[in-house]
């Protein structure tokens, strides 16, 4: 039996591989450029403030043209959203340990999780957080989507912890975990608004305020002894 090779097919396969390689290289270059822009923007915002940093300066420090910068980030608000989303995604990853291996005390388990969130907020310039939140409330499509996707991710992580606690302890077994998670999220979210408007408030201060409210909620559910 003679194996017949179609040269056109070989050429097509080689061309496809080359195209895939070019696309892969192009995508990696875009990711590196995007990361460089975010890094430079964060540094400039830290040094000169939000209003004191022009998009042209960010482009120059990232070594790209202003047109290229606007291709990645059509406005300063879109860039701010990208910075905050990146920080919070890292915070969510770090917080996962408090979901998979929660403290035995329900109150401490929730506080450990929320502490990670607020310590992440604390590492972000409060001006950026205010701008990000205000921009989302204007209901502009992209900002609104970023903001509420972030809220959804935080709520889902609180729901996961609530579910695990309800399955592994005597905690709130007659309470629907999702509903309880929404109550706890609402407490934390209200404190977030206090946090972003008060530059002197620390993550520790926020957690202290949340702890008092959590204690009331959990005591109503019969967990005032915190399984100690």
TrEMBL record:
PROSITE patterns: HTH_TETR_2. The keyword DNA-binding applies. Residues 31-91 form the HTH tetR-type domain. The keyword Ubl conjugation does not apply. Residues 54-73 bind DNA. It comes from the Bacteria. One of its GO terms (molecular function) is DNA-binding transcription factor activity. Keywords: DNA-binding, Transcription, Transcription regulation. This is TetR/AcrR family transcriptional regulator. It comes from Emcibacter nanhaiensis.
């Amino acid at each position: 039996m003679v194996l017949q090779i179609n040269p056109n097919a070989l050429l097509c396969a080689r061309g496809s591989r080359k195209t895939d390689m070019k696309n892969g290289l192009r995508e990696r270059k875009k990711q590196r450029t995007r990361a460089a822009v975010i890094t430079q923007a964060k540094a400039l915002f830290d040094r000169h403030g939000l209003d004191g940093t022009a998009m042209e300066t960010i482009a120059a420090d990232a070594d790209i043209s202003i047109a290229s910068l606007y291709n990645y980030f059509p406005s300063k608000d879109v860039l701010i959203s990208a910075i905050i989303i990146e920080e919070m995604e890292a915070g969510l990853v770090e917080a996962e340990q408090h979901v998979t291996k929660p403290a035995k005390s329900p109150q401490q388990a929730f506080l450990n999780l929320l502490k990670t969130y607020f310590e992440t907020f604390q590492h972000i310039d409060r001006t950026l957080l205010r701008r990000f939140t205000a921009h989302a409330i204007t209901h502009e499509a992209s900002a609104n989507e970023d903001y509420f996707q972030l809220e959804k991710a935080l709520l889902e992580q609180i729901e996961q912890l609530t579910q695990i606690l309800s399955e592994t302890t005597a905690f709130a077994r007659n309470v629907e975990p999702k509903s309880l998670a929404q109550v706890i999220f609402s407490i934390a979210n209200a404190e977030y608004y206090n946090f972003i408007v008060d530059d002197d408030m620390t993550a520790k201060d926020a957690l202290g305020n949340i702890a008092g409210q959590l204690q009331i909620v959990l005591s109503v559910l019969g967990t005032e002894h915190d399984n100690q």
